[in-house]
Design brief:
A hairpin with a 5-residue loop joins strand 12 and strand 13. 23% of the residues lie in helices and 28% in strands. It is an alpha+beta fold and 373 residues long. The chain folds into two domains: 168 residues, Aminotransferase class 4, branched-chain amino acid transferase, N-terminal domain (D-amino Acid Aminotransferase, Chain A, domain 1, 2-Layer Sandwich), CATH 3.30.470; 172 residues, D-amino Acid Aminotransferase, Chain A, domain 2, CATH 3.20.10. The strands form two sheets. Strands 1, 2, 3, 4, 5, 6, 7, 8 and 18 form a nine-stranded antiparallel beta sheet that branches. It has a six-stranded mixed β-barrel with strand order 9-10-11-12-15-16, surrounded by four helices.
Length: 373
């Protein structure tokens, strides 16, 4: 096999097996009922170094540890970095599965290209991640209400203050058990702040890529939402105040449209929003059911508020890897709170989506291209 720049060394699988054959450390596993999001981590991590001179070095699975970085590391100064978010689930049959990880690899590859980080072989990286989860499989909670969160991260480690493409990079992955993303619980409604004075992303920018630079600047707006009694931010864009995303989620609106049709609407992939794996899964399910119209198009605040006023809105909910499906209960816009009747309507569709996806994830129903360990 010819080794291309995007491929890891041919000794990849031998390295993973030999590294993982070391006696695993035995950190105590937390009670699944007490888990919060992103606070606990497993015993091991994956690291893969790259340099312009040598290409990819041999991937290593090793004990979880701190990274040693040069103070001039480009990722620290210029945000030359990206990440992914995916989950592994322990099924009712006790098998462990990753849900649609190929979509995460595709998105990570696109983001690496946009970040001028070296490209990688998507199949080989997924095999590295699969092996890491296999090594730390006891960290996958024995619970249908918790999962193992997987965080692949890719950073430029060029030790230089020049603003340029990195000639050195590090791809690493850490994993840890997680419970519900929101403190309100697994399926409680959240309240949203919609303030047109703040913008998350814009056309021609990088809003469609999973870069840390898209998330850090949102923290102050998130804090402002909390000050105003809301839990998340509904991001608006442009003069028409187009609805885009909700915090770290894609947004869905289930309503009766102007033509009197039942319709599931979500903003389009026009460069502003992230192409979420859960978003794609809900669209795939809805189109497979064929019970209502499914549309990807923009909707402005004026149209949304008009539909709320006329009683056409049935449910509004967010969707993402961290939360799966999350109902929206209210919206604060220009000092006025608008109640959204999501919970009064079941919410039948949001709950159905949530059940379908979680059943797939724990193998209670047919799977959407899951990877089984």
């Amino acid at each position: 096999m010819t080794r291309h720049l995007s491929q890891f060394p041919e000794s990849l699988y031998y390295s993973l097996l030999s590294e993982s054959s070391q006696p695993p450390t035995q950190e105590p596993k937390p009670d699944p009922a007490s888990l919060v999001f992103g606070k606990q981590f497993s015993d091991h991590m994956l690291t893969i170094y790259w340099s312009e001179k040598e290409g990819w070095k041999v991937p290593q699975i090793k004990p979880f540890q701190n990274l040693s970085l040069h103070p001039a590391t480009s990722a620290l100064h210029y945000s030359i970095e990206l990440f992914e978010g995916m989950k592994a689930f322990r099924g009712v049959d006790n098998h462990i599965r990753l849900f649609r990880p190929n979509l995460n690899m595709e998105r990570m590859h696109r983001t690496a290209d946009r970040s001028c980080l070296p490209l990688f072989d998507k199949v080989e990286l997924l095999e590295c991640i699969r092996k890491l989860v296999e090594v730390d499989q006891e960290w996958v909670p024995y619970s249908l209400d918790a999962s193992l969160y997987i965080r692949p991260t890719y950073i430029g480690i060029e030790p230089s203050l020049g603003v340029s493409r990195a000639s050195q990079a590090l791809l690493f992955c850490i994993v840890g058990p997680v419970g519900p993303y929101f403190t309100t619980g697994a399926f409680s409604p959240v309240s949203l702040l919609a303030d047109p004075s703040y913008v998350r992303a814009w056309r021609g920018g990088v809003g469609a890529y999973k870069m840390g630079g898209n998330y850090g600047p949102t923290i102050s707006v998130q804090n402002e939402a909390i000050k105003q009694g809301c839990q998340q931010v509904l991001w608006l864009y442009g003069e028409q105040e187009e609805i885009t995303e909700v915090g770290t989620m894609n947004l869905f609106i289930y309503w009766t449209n102007e033509g009197g049709e039942r319709e599931l609407l979500t903003p389009p992939l026009d460069g502003i929003i992230l192409p979420g794996v859960t978003r794609q899964s809900l669209l795939d399910l809805a189109r497979e059911w064929g019970e209502f119209k499914v549309t990807e198009r923009t909707m402005g605040m004026k149209e949304l508020l008009g539909a709320l006023h006329s009683g056409k809105i049935t449910e509004v909910f967010g969707a993402g890897t961290a939360c799966v499906v999350c109902p929206v209960g209210s919206l604060l816009y220009k000092g006025k709170t608008y109640q959204i009747p999501t919970m009064q309507n079941g919410p039948d569709l949001a709950k159905r989506f949530h059940k379908e996806l979680t059943d797939m994830q724990v193998s209670r129903s047919a799977l959407m291209l899951a990877l089984t360990l």
